[in-house]
Design brief:
- The complex is a heterodimer.
- By secondary structure, chain A is an all-alpha fold.
- In chain A, 72% of the residues lie in helices and 1% in strands.
- Chain A contains 13 helices and 2 strands, in the order H-E-E-H-H-H-H-H-H-H-H-H-H-H-H.
- The relative contact order of chain A is 0.13.
- Chain B is an all-alpha fold.
- In chain B, helix 1 crosses helix 14 and helix 8 packs antiparallel against helix 11.
- The chains are: A mainly alpha, B mainly alpha.
- At the A-B interface, helix 1, helix 4, helix 5, helix 7 and helix 10 of A face helix 1, helix 5, helix 6, helix 7 and helix 8 of B.
C-alpha cells in the first residue's frame, strides 16, 4: 500500500517535472525560433534565390565582384582611384593576422608586468576603457587619433620629420586599413589583458616558487611554466579576438566607410552595402553566409572546447 | 647584496616607466577629445588641443545635445527606451531556461546547448535580411519595439549560457531541503535561486545594457525615421562627409559614451566578471 502511494506521487512528480521544463523553456524557445533561428535559415534560403529559381549564382557573383566598394577578393584596378590590390575578405584576414598577435602579446606582457607596477588597477582600468565605450565612439576616437591637424599619430611623425605620414591616415588608401587595425588594438587590448590577469591570479603560486628555488630565471619561468599554464586563457583570447575581427563593422563604418576606394572595406560592410545601398538582398545574404561560415571556424573550435570542459566537470 | 638590490630596483623602475607610458598613451584619445570638446573649434585648429591656455566653452556640449537636426539629446530617450526592456526581458526569460539547463536533464539538451553556442558566434549580419522582411510584415519595422524584440532575442543565448554556468556553482543543499519541505520548482526558482544569483544578475544587466546601448548595426538597419534614432545613430550622423567639426563631434562622443562609462564605474566588479568571467571557468 505504501509502495502504491509512493509510486503514484513519483509519477505525479515526473509529470510536474516535465511541465516545469516545458514552461521554463518555452518563452526562450519561441523567441529564439522566431527572431534568431528562422532568420538564420532564411538568410541561407535567400542567398540561393535568383531570378530564375534557386542556384549558387549569388555566391559566384559576390566572390567575383570587382567594383572596389564591394569586391571580396580582387577589385578592378582603376588607375585614377588607385584602389588597394585586395578585397574585403582579404582585409578581414589581414586584420586577424596583424591584430591577433599584437593583442595577445600586449595583453600577456602587460598582465605579467602589472604584478610589479604601482597602481596596476588604474592601468588595467584605463586599458579596459576601450571595451566599455560604444564601438561607434571608438571609431570616432580612432579617426581623431589619425586626424592630420589634431591627431597624435600624424603629429608624432611630423616631429620626427617624416612628412609622408604627417597627414590624415584614414583618408589615404595606403594607410586607411592599417590605421584602423592599429586603432582596434587600442580598443581591444583591454579584453586580453583582463582575461590574462584573471588567469594569472588563479595560477598555482607553488609551481613558480619551486622553479625560483631551483634557480630558474624570470624568462625561463615565463616561457616554461607560465605560458603552458595559460593555455585556456589563450584559447579564449584567440577565439574571441578572431570573432571580433571578422565581425568588425562600426569602427569602419564611422571612420572610413570602407574607403577611400574600398581600401579599408570589410565583409560586414559589404553585406550592409548590398542590403541598404544596392537593395540586392540575395547577394547581401550570400555575403552574410560567407561571413558566418568563416566565423564558424574559430566558433566551432570554441564550442568543442566548451562542450569538452563541460563533460570533464561532470 | 646592495648592488643586487640596486639592480632589482632599476628593473622595477624600468617596468613601471614602460607600463605607465603605455597607459598614458592609451588615455591620449580620451584626453584629446575631452580637451577639444571644451574649446572653440577655431582655436583648436590653430593652437592644437594640448595647450591649456585659451578660451573654454560649453557651447559644443549645448549644441551637440540640443541641435534639432543632429543633437544627441533626443537619441538619449530612445536609447533608454530600447536598452532597458532589452535588458530585462532576455534576463528574465534566459534565467528560466538556464535554471532548466542547470538542474534537469531532458531530451535534446546537449543539442539545444550547442545551438546556443552557435548563436553566440553568429554575426548579426546573418539575420538581417529575413528579419527586415519579417519586421516589416509584422508592422515592427522602424519601431523601437521591433528593435527591442530583436535585441532581446539575440541576447538570450549568451545570457542563458552565463547564468547556467553560474547556477551550476550554487550549492544544491538548500534547494534539496526546500524540496523535502514540499516547495515547488517555481518557489525554489523565485525564492531561492534568483536571490542567490544577484551577482550574476548584476553582471548580465551591466553587460547586456551596455551592449544594447552601444549597438549600431541593428539600429542602422531596422530604424529609418530620424525621430526614432538611438544615440549611436545620431552621433554617427554628426560626422560630416568632408569637413569634420571635432568640437561638436567630441561633445557628441562624450555624451554617447557617458552612460556605458557610468555603468562601468558603478558596477565595475560585475562588469568585468560578466565580460570575462564565464570564459575563465573551464
Amino acid at each position: 500500500m505504501f509502495r502504491g502511494i509512493w509510486r503514484r506521487s513519483s509519477r505525479k512528480r515526473g509529470r510536474s517535472k516535465k511541465a516545469i521544463i516545458i514552461t521554463f523553456l518555452l518563452p526562450e524557445l519561441i523567441l529564439l525560433l522566431t527572431f534568431v533561428l528562422t532568420p538564420i535559415v532564411g538568410t541561407f534560403v535567400i542567398s540561393f534565390q535568383t531570378d530564375n529559381g534557386y542556384g549558387p549564382d549569388n555566391y559566384y557573383k559576390v566572390i567575383t565582384e570587382t567594383s572596389p566598394d564591394k569586391a571580396l577578393v580582387l577589385p578592378k584596378n582603376i588607375e585614377s582611384l588607385r584602389p588597394p590590390p585586395w578585397g574585403a575578405l582579404i582585409h578581414n584576414i589581414v586584420w586577424v593576422l596583424i591584430h591577433l598577435p599584437l593583442v595577445v602579446f600586449l595583453g600577456l606582457a602587460l598582465a605579467y608586468l602589472l604584478h610589479e607596477v604601482k597602481g596596476s588597477s588604474i592601468v588595467k582600468t584605463i586599458i579596459f576603457l576601450g571595451m566599455v565605450i560604444p564601438m561607434i565612439v571608438g571609431g570616432l576616437l580612432i579617426r581623431f587619433m589619425y586626424d592630420g591637424t589634431l591627431g597624435v599619430v600624424p603629429l608624432l611623425f611630423k616631429t620626427l620629420g617624416i612628412n609622408s605620414l604627417a597627414k590624415t591616415w584614414t583618408n589615404y588608401p595606403q594607410t586607411a586599413l592599417i590605421s584602423l587595425i592599429l586603432g582596434s588594438v587600442w580598443l581591444w587590448t583591454g579584453f586580453s589583458l583582463t582575461v590574462y590577469s584573471a588567469a594569472f591570479e588563479s595560477l598555482p603560486k607553488s609551481y613558480i616558487e619551486a622553479a625560483k628555488i631551483d634557480g630558474a630565471s624570470g624568462l625561463q619561468i615565463f616561457f616554461k611554466i607560465v605560458i603552458p599554464l595559460l593555455r585556456h586563457a589563450t584559447i579564449v583570447v584567440v577565439v574571441m579576438t578572431m570573432l571580433w575581427d571578422l565581425k568588425i563593422f562600426d569602427i569602419v563604418y564611422v571612420s572610413t566607410l570602407g574607403g577611400p576606394g574600398g581600401s579599408s572595406n570589410v565583409m560586414a560592410l559589404v553585406m550592409y552595402l548590398y542590403f541598404a545601398r544596392a537593395l540586392d538582398y540575395g547577394r547581401s545574404a550570400a555575403t552574410a553566409v560567407i561571413l558566418a561560415l568563416i566565423t564558424l571556424i574559430p566558433g566551432a573550435w570554441f564550442i568543442k572546447q566548451v562542450v569538452k570542459s563541460g563533460k570533464e566537470k561532470r | 647584496m646592495v648592488r643586487r638590490r640596486g639592480k632589482v630596483f632599476l628593473k622595477y623602475l624600468a617596468i613601471n616607466i614602460i607600463v605607465w607610458t603605455i597607459a598614458i598613451l592609451w588615455t591620449l584619445p580620451f584626453i584629446g577629445v575631452a580637451m577639444v570638446s571644451v574649446k572653440p573649434f577655431k582655436e583648436v585648429v590653430v593652437n592644437g588641443w594640448w595647450t591649456l591656455t585659451g578660451h573654454y566653452t560649453l557651447k559644443n556640449f549645448i549644441d551637440a545635445w540640443s541641435n534639432p537636426v543632429y543633437g544627441v539629446g533626443r537619441g538619449y530617450t530612445n536609447s533608454f527606451i530600447v536598452a532597458i526592456p532589452s535588458t530585462i526581458i532576455p534576463l528574465f526569460i534566459a534565467a528560466l531556461a538556464a535554471y532548466v539547463f542547470s538542474r534537469f536533464s531532458f531530451p535534446l539538451k546537449t543539442w539545444l546547448f550547442i545551438t546556443l553556442l552557435v548563436i553566440m558566434s553568429m554575426p548579426q549580419q546573418m539575420s538581417v535580411v529575413p528579419l527586415f522582411f519579417m519586421l516589416d510584415r509584422m508592422g515592427l519595422y522602424d519601431q523601437l519595439s521591433g528593435l527591442i524584440l530583436v535585441h532581446s532575442a539575440w541576447g538570450l543565448a549568451w545570457i542563458t549560457f552565463f547564468l547556467k554556468n553560474f547556477f551550476d556553482t550554487l550549492p544544491r543543499e538548500v534547494e534539496e531541503a526546500a524540496r523535502v519541505d514540499g516547495a515547488g520548482d517555481f518557489h525554489i526558482f523565485f525564492r531561492l535561486v534568483l536571490p542567490m544569483s544577484l551577482p550574476a544578475i548584476a553582471s548580465v544587466s551591466a553587460i547586456q545594457f551596455t551592449w544594447v546601448w552601444s549597438d549600431f548595426f541593428y539600429a542602422l538597419v531596422f530604424i529609418a525615421s530620424p525621430e526614432k534614432y538611438v544615440v549611436t545613430l545620431q552621433v554617427a550622423n554628426m560626422r560630416g562627409q568632408y569637413f569634420v567639426d571635432w568640437g561638436l563631434l567630441s561633445a557628441g562622443a562624450i555624451f554617447t559614451m557617458l552612460v556605458p562609462l557610468l555603468v562601468y564605474a558603478l558596477l565595475q566588479k560585475y562588469y568585468v566578471r560578466g565580460m570575462v568571467g564565464w570564459t575563465i571557468k573551464g
